[in-house]
Write a structure and sequence with these properties.
This protein has 170 residues and is of the alpha/beta class. The chain has five helices and eight strands. It is 30% helix and 25% strand.
């Protein structure tokens, strides 16, 4: 069985070491690529049908409204062959103490019983928040491992740390 690295990542304006910075590649995407380089597997990016606002502050306002409504934003595609994978590395930015709601949209599409979910999260100091607890509730029958938190502004330089962590689950 192979590894699947699923992630949601935000390009463009991001919170970055106390300010807002425009980045060409999302922090979570960088970490996902480091995991793939370390342990192999297929990459899959979760993409929403409706794009979030380009402005960082508008985006987080929208994300907060989705969280408060327990919304499930529509996503563009799903993995066709999830049965081919036993370990799913799952990456996301920490938005309001948990995963973006589109990550839950993705997960709830599948029967995850028997799968191993290995979360990783980028943030600017809030760590994993409550996301591991939320994932355990959503991923019925799956084993949710302890996740890895990476500071977003350090993501591009986190390859060694990410590789050492990911190899524990390969």
């Amino acid at each position: 069985m192979a590894n699947l690295i699923v992630y949601y990542s935000r390009k463009g304006e991001n919170y970055w070491a106390g300010g807002v910075k425009n980045i060409a590649k999302g922090n979570t995407e960088r970490v996902a690529e480091f995991i793939q380089q370390a342990v192999g597997g297929d990459l899959f990016e979760i993409e929403t049908v409706k794009d979030y606002a380009a402005d960082y502050y508008e985006c987080i306002d929208d994300a907060k409204a989705e969280l408060q409504a327990d919304a499930r934003p529509e996503i563009r595609a799903y993995v066709d062959n999830l049965d081919d994978y036993d370990t799913i590395f799952l990456g996301y930015p920490n938005w309001w103490g948990t995963c973006p709601m589109c990550v839950f949209t993705f997960l709830e599409h599948y029967d995850l019983a028997g799968k191993r979910i290995v979360p990783f999260c980028t943030n600017e100091g809030s760590g994993m928040g409550g996301s591991e607890r939320h994932l355990k509730r959503i991923c019925t029958g799956a084993t949710v491992e302890r996740g890895l938190s990476i500071l977003g502004h350090e993501a591009a330089n986190s390859q060694a740390k990410v590789a050492a962590w990911a190899k524990k689950f390969a």
